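Input.
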Amino acid sequence: MSDEVPELPEYAERVLDVADRIPPGRVMTYGDVAEWLGEGGPRQVGRVMALYGGAVPWWRVVRADGVLLPVHELSALEHYRAEGTPLREASRSTEGHVPRLDIRRARWDGVADATDADATDTEAHT
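Output.
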């Protein structure tokens, strides 16, 4: 029943808010966003980003394997390079030679200050 869809806009708003908080040069996977919200899963977050993500830095919500989104890879790559997002250069055998995200280095945990894009350099948790 189409009258039972009001949760989607509220959930979408929450997903987009998380995407907006991710600092430049950092990323969260679809699963990270769902886990941070404590609701939904990677597919639901991906659906929200596909439908409504254009209003936020969509390139910061990514696949867990670091592969850039087909069709959007060149646009995303432009953003990653401008923001200094860690990348892994593609091998010559990779179709199109498009790099992947270095998820280990680029991943944001949602806890560090959103204005500190260098949070990994200053992490000295005891």
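The CA atoms of residues 72 and 110 lie 24 Å apart.
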